[in-house]
Design goal:
Blueprint (H helix, E strand, L loop, with lengths): L2 H10 L6 H24 L4 H25 L4 H20 L15
Length: 110
């Protein structure tokens, strides 16, 4: 789906796309994702249903991310590349024990 499609679909809902609203919706989606994941662990017999809710929340979160990306004049592929570069830089810092990783011993010690 092209970036403009997310904006067009938002307009079809009767809303003019804007970053403030999209960020609020993203917060709700992140909350739904967190709740669904947590509940799937608390209630294993219902985990399939909660994981389906988690996928729905993640899909909605990605859609709103596309809305924000479009409004910022970029696209999801570019943002993914930027995020990947950031993680690669952090891996290098981790391996060389630089910055925040200078004294980091890993999650196992937490």
């Amino acid at each position: 789906m092209e970036e403009t499609d997310a904006l067009a679909l938002t307009r079809k809902l009767g809303r003019e796309p804007n970053i403030s609203t999209a960020l609020h919706i993203m917060q709700w989606n992140l909350g739904d994702l967190t709740k669904s994941w947590t509940y799937s662990k608390w209630h294993p017999s219902l985990s399939e249903a909660y994981l389906a809710e988690a996928k729905l929340a993640l899909g909605s979160l990605l859609f709103q991310t596309e809305v924000v990306a479009s409004l910022l004049g970029t696209d999801l592929a570019s943002l993914f590349d930027l995020g990947e570069d950031t993680v690669l830089d952090r891996i290098e810092d981790y391996e060389k024990k630089r910055g925040r990783f200078e004294y980091y011993k890993g999650d196992k010690d937490a």
